[in-house]
Amino acid sequence: MTPEMTAGMIKVRPPAELGHLAQDGVTLDCHFAFRDYGHPAPLHWGRLRVLNRVALDADAAFRLAHESAVEIVTIALDGMVAVLVDGLGDSLLKPGDCHVVSAGAGVAQATWKTGGAPASFLHLWLMPEEEGGEPTIGLRRGGDRMGQAHALLASGFPADDPEEADQGRSGDPLPLKARARVLRVALAAGEQAAIPTYADRCVYALVVAGHVDIAGQEADAGCGVAITGCETIVVRARDPSTLVICDSD
Q1: Does 1 map to a domain?
Q2: Is residue 235 part of a domain?
Q3: Calpha distance 154→20 (Å, rounded)
Q4: What is the pLDDT of residues 113-152, one digit of tens each?
Q5: Considering the domain boundaries, does residue 5 fall inside one?
Q6: Is residue 2 part of a domain?
Q7: What's the domain range around 225?
Q8: Which residues have CB under 8 Å from 167's CB, separation 6+?
Q9: Does residue 195 contact residue 147 with C-beta atoms inside 8 Å?
């Protein structure tokens, strides 16, 4: 946790409180300290170190170099984005797809780029339990094994994926080296979802679209909501809404 976010609390962070970076056709909305977005930005929430919404113009690219000891989760929102990871191959993401780069001992370069049309995606960076190891990638196509309202996209808990031999099929969560879960929740207006967790966990929710009441707080599209001290998080949709939720220790 950070000094700005203490145990037993719920804090809504509207878009005006976030960091906004733009350069060379790349726009970032940053929930935690990242590049030129520093103090007073929070450094992390649990194991969630980065949560950025990334928008790319047509024929633009977002590049990282020499990253290690991090799990980089990409969730495609709009358009098509190609992910190129040095030594590990290329993946083309469509809206709803999820991709994980487990950097391990180090990835020399990773690139997210568009073709002739713009695209947007989310980046969640998670701090792993242990550093080192060979870097790997994983891809989960848009699918839903938890029902229409819930999709478990990635998890660091083996019990969440009992059929490890079939990893990567539509609906299976991608493995993480962090004790964390990344979920997508989509609700129609008037619907609600109850997300189980533990009081000592750090939950961070991003309202991707719509308007919700989450844990008793109102939040619009673009808001981040940091939660701890809860065992169940109830989300009620005022409008058709989509959230991405990270639950970590």
Answers
A1: no
A2: yes
A3: 26
A4: 999 999 999 999 999 999 899 999 999 998 544 444 589 9
A5: no
A6: no
A7: 10-248
A8: 138, 161, 174, 175
A9: no
